[in-house]
């Protein structure tokens, strides 16, 4: 197994889910996607995570992001567990959960926990763009729940920096200033964005307002 790397095409697959059968690339249909694994159904951390993803439904939609969960448990177990997730979170689980009891998807994306003596998944996250390229990957151990606000923030940064010669500074959030790419000179940046709109901290570190 090899983890899909940044810039590579995310592996396509067919799967059974709680929302019916899908083929991944067709299902995402030129949208952004967040594919995330969880170790097992009816476990405490996973219940809070899938509930949080459900509660963020409007935030995913605003960014044209489709979310897709995966674990090695069977479809009947997923369906039963959804009731607990919805009761705990107060949100409806409207996104698909893959029943990966064959471990096809988990192996394609290298989600099986190494050295743990079992076949359950780690907490992996893949952000995949409309061209099906992997743009971000994160892996957490089983004991640490993910921060989905950070995943939304990363999607915001990716979508913004795709629109121009920008990068984002540490802890950047939507609405804050961005960094002018090193490939653009300060003079060119001031001509493009306005002389007063570019702050030069260092010759290689220039800030400007994010485009509307």
From TrEMBL:
<comment type="function">
    <text>Thiol-specific peroxidase that catalyzes the reduction of hydrogen peroxide and organic hydroperoxides to water and alcohols, respectively. Plays a role in cell protection against oxidative stress by detoxifying peroxides.</text>
</comment>
<dbReference type="Pfam" id="PF00578">
    <property type="entry name" value="AhpC-TSA"/>
</dbReference>
<dbReference type="InterPro" id="IPR024706">
    <property type="entry name" value="Peroxiredoxin_AhpC-typ"/>
</dbReference>
<dbReference type="InterPro" id="IPR045020">
    <property type="entry name" value="PRX_1cys"/>
</dbReference>
<dbReference type="InterPro" id="IPR050217">
    <property type="entry name" value="Peroxiredoxin"/>
</dbReference>
<dbReference type="InterPro" id="IPR019479">
    <property type="entry name" value="Peroxiredoxin_C"/>
</dbReference>
<dbReference type="InterPro" id="IPR013766">
    <property type="entry name" value="Thioredoxin_domain"/>
</dbReference>
<comment type="similarity">
    <text>Belongs to the peroxiredoxin family. Prx6 subfamily.</text>
</comment>
<keyword id="KW-0575">Peroxidase</keyword>
<dbReference type="InterPro" id="IPR036249">
    <property type="entry name" value="Thioredoxin-like_sf"/>
</dbReference>
<keyword id="KW-0676">Redox-active center</keyword>
<feature type="domain" description="Thioredoxin">
    <location>
        <begin position="4"/>
        <end position="160"/>
    </location>
</feature>
<dbReference type="InterPro" id="IPR000866">
    <property type="entry name" value="AhpC/TSA"/>
</dbReference>
<dbReference type="Pfam" id="PF10417">
    <property type="entry name" value="1-cysPrx_C"/>
</dbReference>
<protein>
    <submittedName>
        <fullName>Peroxiredoxin</fullName>
    </submittedName>
</protein>
<keyword id="KW-0560">Oxidoreductase</keyword>
<keyword id="KW-0049">Antioxidant</keyword>
<comment type="similarity">
    <text>Belongs to the peroxiredoxin family. AhpC/Prx1 subfamily.</text>
</comment>
